Amino acid sequence: MKFRGKIIDVSCLNHFTRVVTTISKLTKLCVLRLTPDHLFFVLSGKVANGGVSMWCELSQANFFDEYQMEGVSSEDNEICLEVTPENLSRALKTVQNAKSVKVKLTKKHCPCLTIAAELPTLSSISRVVTHDVPVNVIPRRLWHEFKEPSMPDFDVSIYLPPLKTMKSVVDRMKNLSNFLVIEANLNGQMNLKIETDLVSVTTHFKDLGNPPWGEDASQEDSASQSRDPETMAEARVDIRRLQQFLMGQQVNPSKAMCNIVCQRVVHLILLHEDVSLQYFIPAVA
Amino acid sequence: MDCVVTGGNVKVLAKAILSLSRIGDELYVEPQDDGLALRSVNSSRSAYGCFLFAPLFFTRYTIPNGQDFRCKMAIKSVQAVFRSLASLEKTVEKCHIELDKKKNRLTFTLHCKHGLLKTHNLSFQDSESLQAVFDKESYANVFRAQPRLLADTVVHFPSSLDEVTMSVNDDRMWFRNHVEDEAELSKAMQTELCLASDEFDHFAVRAHNSVTFCLKELRGLLVFAESANLPISIYFDEPGSPVVLSVTDSVLEGNFVLATLSDDSHQRKDNTRRAQTPPPPPPDDFMNDDIDSYLIAMDTSMAPGPSSAGPPTPPLAKSTYSKQPVAAYHRTRIHSEEEEEEKEETDDSDRPPNKKFCSLFFGSVLPPSSQMSTQPVTNQEVLASDSEDDTQAE
Questions:
Q1: Which terminus in chain A has less CB density within 10 A, N or C?
Q2: Which helix (H) or strand (E) holds B220?
Q3: Are residues B193 and A129, on separate chains, in Cβ contact within 8 Å?
Q4: Which residues fall in a compositionally biased region of kind Basic and acidic residues (chain B) (predicted)?
């Protein structure tokens, strides 16, 4: 197992840092999967994380100027590491002005992802800072837990309103209730609702548009085509999970979508040219 | 005492108080012939900070003749005087500090724009003089750096981090975060930063040593140094003896004295100790930190404090405190006795785990005022001994 990547371009470094920081806001611990072409940050939906799961995919070529990796074996050319994204984020944040940043899998007192940065100085010798972030190497027999989640058989798919707007709404609702109902229809309408004994609040969004899912989603298509465009599909979720997702958001996505499986799950997708982030929040009764 | 600070110096004074507030909860104020001394010490007495503002720093500086006045007060209340540091420079034209003897208050009057006057009457307590004993000139390693360099260094360490280890060789200096526990090593992020000697204004190394000290106070001094744009000098010697951080210009001097961890060399000390002293107590006992014992040494010296009696007459002071200079300047039997008692009483588990900071040594005496100056007391032994020295001295 070998891994070594180098980032020279400042905007790539900055972008990578923002992705990692976003991840760090979503989860304390996650799995970093390295393949020859991609990096994945994965959180599998275990009860311990409140059933939330996450899948974030980055194309390495868009971030790294150099990227070398050698997986466990030639058939399984992958590396699977359990990392604390906050540590990675903190390490990356302090080296934003670096001339170059190397990310390496190293063997120190324990396996580490070492982030070594060459910082600019006035003197002839560069200043070097290294951050060793301890990681756990995940054995191959557990890899099956960290595969890409399949697209749920959703009832409604809808584009999200600007995430900042949504955040301010959800932040205020958080003060009133612990649970939020998110509902949407095929007519581009979405509602965020809370209901308590004392108060009911609903925020209505309209004209959001419904993303066209192509042939690969044909099965769902037929189901949703037969669906009355006005009928809402709803799911009740833990408001903290949604808030977490909106709060940590640092990647300005070109597309943000939400798929709702009635009473089952809310599937949030953020797309930015080279990054995709999927986040699954299970519905609660 | 009656002094006036004007213009940009108000901010300098405020920043100094702010950086002292990173050390302790109390501000010790002592007007001296050579200037106004502001000091602070932390509760475990492992960090001490002192600023001396020369009379020239002030537009007016008068102190009572032949009368010792020194006091301490909650540093928070002094900070409140200089609230909104950012706008201070623009709004405050003059700051007048005066001792109101009748009311027993220290009065801070801020003369602001548009003729606005803000008056703060702060109560205070009489106090002993606070003076850490250190001699930075004797230290093996001396550095001077622009505050920017150190600020750029500490920024790589998380604000939650307590201690850093600083190591040097002939042309490099490293900073590393200090991880206390072996078990933590597999969880905690390790950060190391290397600085080349030519990034420093001055880089003189005689001993390739590593010392571990608290980051918080260094950050505190950096607040001051960055705002005043003064280079910071670093003096250090060996593990266990304190690091001294200094800033100086023509009208002020600031010294921060930080205890360093001594555990790096425990093994070695333990061995030599066994060889040299016939009845060695169990090593665990030996390895207990000696903060408590030094604290006792200090506390007893303060107990008969003169707060109610007013300034003590010299003969009284002499007899009451006769032990003190001895205790402070030579590590004597007094300490070890107290230490032993302390050890018997204290269960190991009560102690802060694994923190083997040597406490700083203070000459907390009421000596003739001529002797008391904020200038580092030269020709005196370096403070912060550990128990090894105590026993060997016997």
A1: C
A2: helix B215-228
A3: yes
A4: 263-273
Of A95, A123, A130, the CB nearest to B199: A123
**Same domain for B65 and B179?**
no
CB proximity A211 to B under 8 Å: no
pLDDT by residue (tens digit) across B54-81? 999 999 998 877 667 888 999 999 999 8
Q: Is residue B131 domain-resident?
A: no
How far B195 CA sits from the closest chain A CA (Å)? 6
CA distance A137 to chain B (A): 12
Residue of A129, A133, A136 to mutate, testing the B interface (most B Cβ within 10 Å of its Cβ): A129
What tokens does A210 get?
Answer: 């419904």
Q: Do B229 and B146 have their domain in common?
A: yes
Give pLDDT tens digits for B310-357: 333 333 333 333 333 333 333 333 333 333 333 334 344 444 444 556
| A204 interfacial to chain B (CB closer than 8 Å) | no
End residue of a domain, out of B258, B282, B316: B258
Which of B192, B194, B188 lies closest to B160 in space, CA to CA?
Answer: B188
B50 is a domain residue: yes
Q: Is B314 part of a structural domain of the chain?
A: yes
Going edge to edge, which strands form the sheet with A190-195? A200-205, A190-195, A179-184, A233-238
- ipTM rounded to 2 decimals: 0.79
Note whether B112 and B144 are same-domain residues.
no
Residues of chain A contacting residue B150, judged by C-beta atoms under 8 Å apart: none
* One domain, residues B110 and B196: no
pTM over the 0.80 mark: no
- Phi first, then psi: what are they for B280, rounded to 5°? -80, 130
Q: Which of B11, B73, B78, B63 has its CA nearest to residue B32?
A: B63
Question: How many other C-beta atoms are found inside a 10 Å radius of the C-beta of residue B202?
Answer: 12
| Same domain, residue pair B161 and B232 | yes
Same domain, B253 and B219: yes
Q: Measure CA of the first residue to CA of the last residue in chain B; give whole Å.
A: 45
Cβ(B2)–Cβ(B36) below 8 Å: no
> Is residue B98 one of the residues assigned to a domain?
yes
List pLDDT tens digits, range B138-169. 888 999 999 999 999 999 998 888 899 999 99
The verdict on B253 and B269 lying in the same domain is: no
Q: Which of B126, B148, B183 is the last residue of a domain?
A: B126
Domain that holds residue B218: 136-258
Helix axes A10-26, A85-93, angle to 10 degrees: 150
From B329, B326, B320, select the one nearest B302 (Cα to Cα): B320
